[in-house]
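stuck on this chain:
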Amino acid sequence: MFSVNHQKFMEMDELSLRKVPYFFIIDFLGENVEIFEEHEIEKSGLMIDFQNFSTVKSQHLLQKKVEWKSYPETLEDFQTGFDKVQKNIRLGNSYLTNYTRKTRIETNLTLEEIFFHSSAKYKVFYKDFFVFFSPETFVKIIDGKILTYPMKGTIDASLDNAAEILKNDKKEKAEHYTVVDLLRNDLSMVADNVKVDKFQYIDFIKTRQKDLYAMSSEISGTVKPEFNGKLGSLMKQLVPAGSILGAPKPKTLEIILEAEGYERGYYTGICGWFDGDSTDSCVMIRFIEKEDDNLYFKSGGGITHMSRLEDEYQEMKNKIYVPIH
């Protein structure tokens, strides 16, 4: 069906065992893995802005008013894949499937300007090919400890008692429980003593279109001896990321490939920075890609047996934004 790039994951292992700092990008299926040693980053057309690692040297001022238009598919087109997902959930093949779409957008901003002016925990611009501004950590590895912060459930922050509503929303709650469970299982493949440290805390995300609240949890464990220093082997074991796939993983992946009908590519893949000791990585969501002369925004959400078509369609559209104030 697809082939994971074992060679590149071994290269990652080699570098991390030698404690050579590098940046890595892994696509959704683990087929394309790119590795950039620190001295190669700049000439590769890559710009990175993480909380503890940034190649951005100077401030940029935005001198224009942002123009932004999106052209989402019709509800009927969205429903085609949605129904395939729901059918599989009813059959018991999956209990959570992350269903994503590709939406054409028009803006007067270049990908580079979007990179410089959007505010997010993790931002990457790659060679006029894609840009993303992700709020979601994948894993952090510090002193032999591995941490992950699954984020599932968002709500418009302008609603009265929005944070409370989100915390108590049955569907969002069920989805969050499922993802926490899934990531706890995933971490158990590469770590011992896996536990949930914080459950269902609320993050505030500011955007130009609307402010959102998002629900996260924190899970941690101790990296198993056989994965110590072997960042490639560890990442190979964990991708695709559970939070943007669903559960159970292998069957849900089949459902996604059939229902979505387009290639995610680097969208919902993983990228991260290894500084010679620690690793910080993120899930590549809130993602805009250039294809020919068009720009496409890829977005979606988790589907469970409780999902309503109109709500999911709305959520997919809600996520088409740039966090520029």
